[in-house]
Structure formats: C-alpha cells, structure tokens
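Please produce the structure of this protein holding uracil.
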Amino acid sequence: MRMYDLINKKKNGSELTSAEIDFMVCGFTDGIIPDYQMSAMMMAIFFRGMSEKETLALTNAMAKSGAMLDLSAIDGIKVDKHSTGGVGDKTSLALAPLVSACGLKVAKMSGRGLGHTGGTIDKLESFPGFTTEISVDEFVKNVNEIGMAIMGQTNELAPADKRLYALRDVTATVDQMSLIASSIMSKKLAAGADAIVLDVKTGSGAFMKDEKDAVLLAEEMQRIGTNAGRKTVALVTDMDQPLGFAVGNALEVKEAIETLKGNGPEDFVKLCVALGAQMLLVGGLALNQNEAEAKIRAAINDGSALKVMADFVKAQGGDPDFVYQPEKLPAANIITPVFAPESGYIEKIICDEIGHCSLILGGGRVTKDSIIDLSVGIVLSKKIGDPVSKGELLANIHGNDEAKIAAAKARLLGAYKISKSPVKPPVLIKKNIGQEFI
Ligand code: URA
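Below is the modeled complex.
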C-alpha cells in the first residue's frame, strides 16, 4: 500500500477501506507517513468528506493507536460524559458526584483548558493538594470504593489523534464534521466506558456556533459511538450565554458545590438533571425519564452527592473540609462591580467575550505552559431575558490586578446588549439525540 495512492483515491472521491485507513493511521503514528502526505489527505477529506464506514474506521484506528483503558475491574456499567465545552461549563464537577450518589460508577478522564477558562482538572486543583495524576490501579480502586474518580488524560490515550489534531490545526482542516467527530470519539472509546452521554454545545460561546452544525456533529458522534458498540446518546444544549453565573476556576467549583447543596443556578441545575438522567438511563439505573430525574434531584436534597464530592476530593489528595466550607477555596483580593449603563432587558451576552474577560484576569491559558490564577473570574448577576435598571449590578469581576480588572470591565460591558423590549431567554436543551437506543 502507498500513501500516494490513498491520497489520490480520496481526492477522486472514492471510499477508503478500513485496511487503508488503518495503514494510514498506524504509519502516521509511527512517523513513517510524513506530515506533508497526511496534510494532503486531510485536505482531500475536507473537500470529499467521509462515509459513515470510513468515519468509524478512522475513529477505531485512532482509538487503538495507544493504550485502551481496561475498566473491567470496575463492577457495573461505566458511563462517561463528554461536553464540547463552553464558558462557565462546570458540569462534570457537579454531575459526576450526582450520578455516582445514584449508584453509577464514574471513571472519567479529563483535560486541562487552553484559552478562555481552565478545564475540569484546572478547576479541581482549586482544592489544595488535589491531584489527577493517579495510577490506573488507584483510579479503578477509587471508582470501586467511592463511586467516582477523575484522572488526567495520559499521552498514551489516542496518540494518533493528538498528532493529527496538531496537523489539522495548522493546515485549516479542523472544521470538518467527520474529522471532529472521530477525533472526540476516538478519545472516548479509548477511555473505556460502556456508554457515553454527549453534551454538544451551540451558541456564541461554543465550538459549534450554529445550531444546525451542532446537531449534525451530535448525530455523527452518536452514530460512531453506537456503531462502535457503546450505548451513546447526545443532548444539544445552549451556550449563547455562560452556564450558571460563575466563570473562573475556583468560582465555578464554589458554584458546583452550592448546586450539590441545593442552591444552584436554575439553568445549571436543569442541565445537570437532564444529563444526569441520560446517564442513569444508559447505565440501566432508571426505567424512565421521570424516575431518573427524581433520583438526581434526591441526590441533591439528601446531601448524598455532596458527600461523594468530599470523599472524592479526599481520595485524590485534597482537603474534604473545603467541600463543606467552600469559602476556604482560593479567592481574589479585589471584587469590582459592573453596573448596567441603561435600563431595559438583557438581549445578548457575547459568551466568548465573557470567557475572554476571565482570560484577561489570568483565569485561562494563553499558551499551554501558562500558569493560571485559580481565584479570578466573573460572577454574572443578569442573564438573557432579565429586566435591568440603569445602575443595577450586571456582574462582579474577581481579580488581583487593577489594570487587568479595568481591561476586563471594558470587555464585559461590550459583551452585554440591552434591549428596550422584553426578550425571551434561550432554550437550554435544544435537541435530544439517540433516545431510541436507551
Ligand atoms: N475537539 C477535539 O477533541 N477534536 C476536534 O477535532 C475538535 C475539537
């Protein structure tokens, strides 16, 4: 087999076989196929697309390019959840303890963030001493004993995707639906769960700005998961404004803890209940939607999810007291209020811009080696649809540097648009995909 012939075949619009895709992925991972040939192939795929069969073959080949996590030592059905990411998306922090308190085993691999705000691991490091650098044996032991564990994504997980993504990033071939879907799903398949719940975000703070594209991506990933033998469902959810009120690492941890205590923001609670219900359903721990949702709400009301959170933090080196007293978590020195410049109704909050405010304050990474300030961020007071009077609080900026706060304040004011007429808040859960597979 020659890579030249495969590029030519794809360029001419023919379907690649699974053996050809395996050859290409293995050769690229081993450094035998050079970047320039793989770049040409990515561009050919960008213009010609990939069939369902080709997309599954690419996903499987990338998943198998490194270690496949074996979770068979964990009893019961293991369910993973993946979000395509957004501003203020602290869902895993609350969701994992919630479903775990309902009896589901959560063995989750997470990453760090680049840009906007931190990833789940950065947020969890707000607990002093907490680590996600644990061995697979410890990971499995914690899931069996506590019900949940989160470990950092290792370099051995789908290395072909890591190399290929870096190449796509510099050859303008990231934005191809089958390539995105196979990239995300290869990591999910390698991470070993039996079932997968996907949260595909859409809106001004999402990777997929357009709802139609988000639905196509969700459908494609759902198909890949199902064809790969994992029960997979997806929700398409709103990211046209930050999720909840808090944006920033420790601030989001506090909001997740408050949610487990029953004091969460309405949209965030609704999303946790919806995703949690899907996880219980695919995991076989509830017979129908109503029962699943009731179990999640009960785990908030009886304090069991909060206890799982404390046990989990302790097992991974953190101080569980911080869960019960979140005021001990890192806090910024300066809180600067931002007031509404006019009266009306909140029409728009450019979500990416709020993420950038957090980045300016030091809450996100500019390069992969940046050190982030866990204490900084924004706490919104007003969301889309809320009435507001001139001079009323829009948000509080939590920062440690006056110049950065001033820059963030200007950007935050520019992110809000106020209308004179009433505005409907965005629909949070836009589409539910794959229910027939539950
Ligand atoms: N996230 C990924 O992991 N892969 C892509 O291709 C795009 C977003």
